[in-house]
Amino acid sequence: MNPAGTVKVGIESKEIFSIMKLLEEVDWTEPWIILLLVFHGFITVLAVVTRNHGNIQAVLFCLLLLMVYFSEVLNEWAARNWRLFARDQYFDSSGVFISIMFAAPSLLNCLFLVCQWLWISGTLLIKAKQAQLRSQVQQQHADGSSQQVRGSDRTYRRDTSDFSGREKCD
């Protein structure tokens, strides 16, 4: 209900000129809107806390995308049954409200997960390349090191890069 005590029929799509206009029209004290905000906060915290658990994040990612996919169906149901849980009718046929309040935060969480996965992949790629380069340097150092055999008056050096296995004289 609005301050005058009458039930507001809803927000017309023609009235919405910007996201700010829509957000000004929302009654932020409605329990289901508070619950929706808590839900998005919980999902964001869950995405951050599980940053080292790829399987949990993959499940979370898929669930979020499924929820976004079915947001149109949810919008249609909420438009028909808004009196069961809300004081005002927010759910229009174009789905602006559910897109802003439900789908957009879910997609932002998905974007966060993808960026996190890209960061982890890049870090792992760098570590793998560094390990490969270290291994190559160690291999070259081992191959390039010479084994010197001291004789009575000559020093013989065995060059391991010579595949014949012959010793060379300096």
Description:
The chain has 170 residues and is mostly helical. The protein has one domain (13-142). The protein has five helices and three strands; from the N terminus they run αααααβββ. It has a three-stranded antiparallel β-sheet with strand order 1-2-3, with no helix packed on it. Strand 1 (147-150) and strand 2 form a beta hairpin. The longest helix is centred in the C-terminal third of the chain and has 49 residues, at 96-144. It is rod-shaped. The protein starts with 18 loop residues before the first helix and ends with a strand.
Oligomeric description of these chains: single chain
Number of domains: 1
Identify low-pLDDT runs: 146-152
The helix tally amounts to 5
Distance, first to last CA: 99 Å
The geometry reads as rod-shaped
Q: Care to count the β-strands?
A: 3
Relative helix content: 55-70%
Family: Belongs to the TMEM18 family.
Keywords: Coiled coil, DNA-binding, Membrane, Nucleus, Transmembrane, Transmembrane helix
Main location: membrane
Region (Disordered): 139-170
Task: Write a brief structural summary.
With 170 residues, the chain is mainly alpha-helical. It is 60% helix and 6% strand.
